[in-house]
Amino acid sequence: SPTPGCDWLWRGKRRSDWSSRGGGVGGCFPGKNARGGPPSPAMGPLRAAAARGLPALHLFGDPAEVEALRGRLLAWYDQSKRDLPWRALAVTEPDVNRRAYAVWVSEIMLQQTQVATVIDYYNRWMQKWPTLQALAEASLEEVNELWAGLGYYSRGKRLQEAARKVVSELAGQMPRTAEELQKLLPGVGRYTAGAIASISYGQATGVVDGNVIRVLCRLRCIGADPSSPPVIDRLWAMANALVDRSRPGDFNQALMELGATVCTPKAPLCGECPVKQHCRARLRVGVAPKTVPSQPAGGCGLPAVPSPVPSGGEGAGLGLSEVIGKTPPGA
Ligand code: SF4
């Protein structure tokens, strides 16, 4: 018979499936219950789970656990993070506009492109155009010349157009929140806006990319289709609730770094995982799996967890496609 709690998968495809049963961070859609009948639609998932004696398997409902998870993830990140030029600038650059610009350039370059490839391009770009103003004054030919070999040339062009807009229409001031960044800057989507705002400004806003989707789905044993808009909405809500309030930029980078280096699509290194204590997929399967099948098996254990990161390896995950590669570069 089904494992209690594991029928509590996200099954809803329509937004109405969520709105009628919402509540709780990452609340799940209660399907047919293993112990007899579905919970009342009027009950939020946490209360319904508790009433049935089921674990709130797909939720982060315990504030103490959330705190512990944040602490473990950040401690691991402090020890293990890769030394990358945009990370150094995000920490050392005192000017907020230059800092945001430095993070922005890295995020655009990392879309669809591997970290190792980006580093040299990034260093040359920042050397040539260290500020928004410098980039705004460059010619498109110069931009394309430096971008040559990185692919998706429209990214460089849009970056420059957006820089010109900031200089000419916003008095050289980068928008100061994720919402404003997304609204005002062409080519900046929800993910990029959240990354710039959390890393550059310390805004407590989450990010969701392919790596984050995979990690969150595994942590909470979520087997639902992550390409479904309601599921994506819930993952954003979960990321926003989880993000560490005092170190949001580091937390977001840590979650993505975990997905890129430890919680990989195939053969995740569960034994080395800093948050394995919190991983419900790992608990479900009982042992660290050797591989993750590409086809979801339909349960909520690790084999059922979708691997939404598109081909492209590390870069695809850290490359920060807005949502599982469905948004074209620059979105
Ligand atoms: S324990 Fe394994 S599956 Fe769970 S988050 Fe860590 S690496 Fe991923």
TrEMBL record:
Question: What are the GO BP annotations of this UniProt entry?
Answer: base-excision repair; mismatch repair
Q: Which UniProt keywords apply?
A: 4Fe-4S, DNA damage, DNA repair, Glycosidase, Hydrolase, Iron, Iron-sulfur, Metal-binding
* Residues covered by the HhH-GPD domain: 109-261
Catalyzes what?
Hydrolyzes free adenine bases from 7,8-dihydro-8-oxoguanine:adenine mismatched double-stranded DNA, leaving an apurinic site
- State the SMART domains in the record: ENDO3c, FES
Its Enzyme Commission number(s) read 3.2.2.31
List the molecular function annotations (GO) for this entry: 4 iron, 4 sulfur cluster binding; 8-oxo-7,8-dihydroguanine DNA N-glycosylase activity; adenine/guanine mispair binding; metal ion binding; oxidized purine DNA binding; purine-specific mismatch base pair DNA N-glycosylase activity
What CDD domains does the entry give?
ENDO3c
Enzyme class, spelled out? hydrolase
Name the segments for region: Disordered: 14-40, 311-331
Reported cofactor(s): [4Fe-4S] cluster
Q: Which GO terms describe its cellular component?
A: nucleus
Q: Does the keyword Iron-sulfur apply?
A: yes
The UniProt entry, under Pfam families, shows:
EndIII_4Fe-2S, HHH, HhH-GPD
Q: Which family does it belong to?
A: Belongs to the Nth/MutY family.
* UniProt protein name: Adenine DNA glycosylase
